[in-house]
Amino acid sequence: MVQVKKEAVRQRIIETADRLFHQKGFIATTIGQIAKDAQMAGSAIYVYFPSKLDIALAIFEPRIIAEMDVTEKASMRIKDKRARLAYILKRLWHDIPLQNNNYFNNLIQALVISSNDENYKPTILLEIKTRIGAMIGTCLSPERAAAFDIDAFTQLAVMAFDGFVINGHLNPAEVGSDRIIDLTCSMILGGDG
Fold first, then answer.
1. Which residues mediate DNA binding here (predicted)?
2. CB 3.0 to 4.6 Å from 129: which of 16, 81, 154, 171, for a disulfide?
């Protein structure tokens, strides 16, 4: 018999998993616990999500996109290019990683332990890199933009984000510190900033 998917059930799974990930972490939360708390059979979860990673992505992808939206909109109101760049980096390397008790640490956990069998597609990663690159581009003069490898920097920025998320619960004072932001702005802007 074919299972009919209901949006309300899918949403209940997402909300339950979100709460459990926040309480226990991604790794410690099991599909069985999600099913029990969502008041459904464990096998029913798989009708909606092929894996726990898929549940995590359903939770975190919209949130990271929303954070990028906020960052883009707010950064465009900052006229000074160095201040705009500092704001963008502070959001990526400090504000977002430390949000809600290191909330995005669960996303990093999910990605780190995922297997090739789960067929993770880095669509969101590519979108984030593109958006970060575009935001950084608005901070550069045409001459500096021609000389600076924005693509390479966006790869570095995403890797740094991951590191700051992981380090957030270990040493929050060093997550995206003003020293790091200032140094990075100077490196990116070169003689322009």
1. 30-49
2. 154
Domain that holds residue 67: 52-192
Task: Name the domain count of the chain.
Answer: 2
* Cβ atoms within 10 Å, residue 119: 11
Helix boundaries (H) for the chain: 7-24, 31-37, 42-48, 52-75, 81-90, 96-102, 105-113, 123-137, 142-147, 150-167, 178-189
Render each residue's pLDDT in the chain as its tens digit; 193 residues: 455 678 999 999 999 999 999 999 999 999 999 999 999 998 999 999 999 999 999 999 999 999 999 999 999 999 999 999 999 999 999 999 888 766 788 888 888 887 777 677 778 889 999 999 999 999 999 999 999 999 999 999 999 999 998 888 788 777 878 999 999 999 999 876 6
Whichever domain contains 10, its CATH number is: 1.10.10.60
